[in-house]
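Batch manifest, entry 17 of 40.
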Amino acid sequence: MTEMLLRADGVDLPATLDVPEDATGVIVFAHGSGSSRLSPRNVAVADYIRQTGRFGTLLFDLLTPREDSVYENRFDIDLLTRRLVEACRWLHGRQGQSAVPLGLFGASTGAAAALKAAVAVPDLVAAVVSRGGRPDLAAGALPLVPVPTLLIVGGADYQVLELNRRAMAMMPAGTGRLEIVPGATHLFEEPGALEQVARLTRDFFTEMLEA
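Output type: structure tokens
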């Protein structure tokens, strides 16, 4: 595991990279509003999928501390998307990584950025997973999403669940898949809920990146 600074969009963003030599895929995490690469939920999912021994992970801050202090930046999906796209390009350019497919895992607002990034660089991104995401914030890009996308939503996260259902209906036929975690609220804090998110994520990326 390597702690580093990732240069993207003209700024240095703290990042944590962990990629095994024989990785069959690398998952790039995009955290949600008010969070960071240290999001305990994203870290837990990253730890879980790395246990397969086949996937690497990149978690990085989408905003600098100064940028994050401006509330509007947290919902600037175009800004977040640019940073995510540059992270994907950087990974693709690393020695030995150009042939390894990338998956994107977005939470909340980070899910909107992940979907827009998949549209922007379809040659680099093979699949997207959204956890409690806000795909509605990428509404203009939804009909253009070119890769398999898994939308994971808590069954008790009623408003976000409805937003995800509408978003999936806007995506190309066969692109979106909705998985509902029964009884879970937005942060998946209920016993076993986050573990179910991690299993769904691992299985989806295994299916899509190792096909």
